[in-house]
Amino acid sequence: MWRIEEHRRVDRQLAGAPIEILKRYEKWKDIAAISGPPGLRLIKGFHDEALAGQWKGHRSSRLGILWRVIYRVDGEVLVIEVVAVTPQDYRRLKMKMYRPARRRVDVSPGESVRILRELQELTQSQLAERSGIAQATISAIENGRVRLGVERAKVLARALRCHPSVLVFPGWDIELENAA
Fold this sequence. Notes:
Blueprint: E1 3-7, H1 10-14, H2 19-42, E2 49-50, E3 59-62, E4 67-74, E5 77-84, E6 98-100, H3 109-119, H4 124-131, H5 135-142, H6 150-160, H7 164-168, H8 174-179
Parallel strand pairs: 1-5
Antiparallel strand pairs: 1-6, 2-3, 3-4, 4-5
Helix pairs in contact: 3-5, 4-5
């Protein structure tokens, strides 16, 4: 498990973000917490890449055309900062105060499947071919008419190149569970 900390400015930066960007950010955090940077690189829609120049030592993942997660890895801690940028505007901001990442929106298992499918640039039919699950079933899962279930989650996670818990337990905090 990776611990994710956010810069204190993240709340302000995400205040005006579209709901789809917030949901993608929640999926990004789920994947980063479970699989770390190697897991982020497997999701081609994130276009996860190392940055250069004044951002050397940082990485960037794409949430949308104008939204990036800029983060760096400190040992077993992902320190992240979400910045609204254009491809030409990677101004370095001071990163001094961090706190544990918090959930801003809830993402259902069906929405998780849809978001990861779209990030992989797959249609429902293509995902059906990869997973062996009928396209109609995938559509029903994404629209919340059919429960995902653990076995389907395992198959879909393999096809989507992520850990099954990213689909089944979106936003689950393992540290809170262990404390109980």
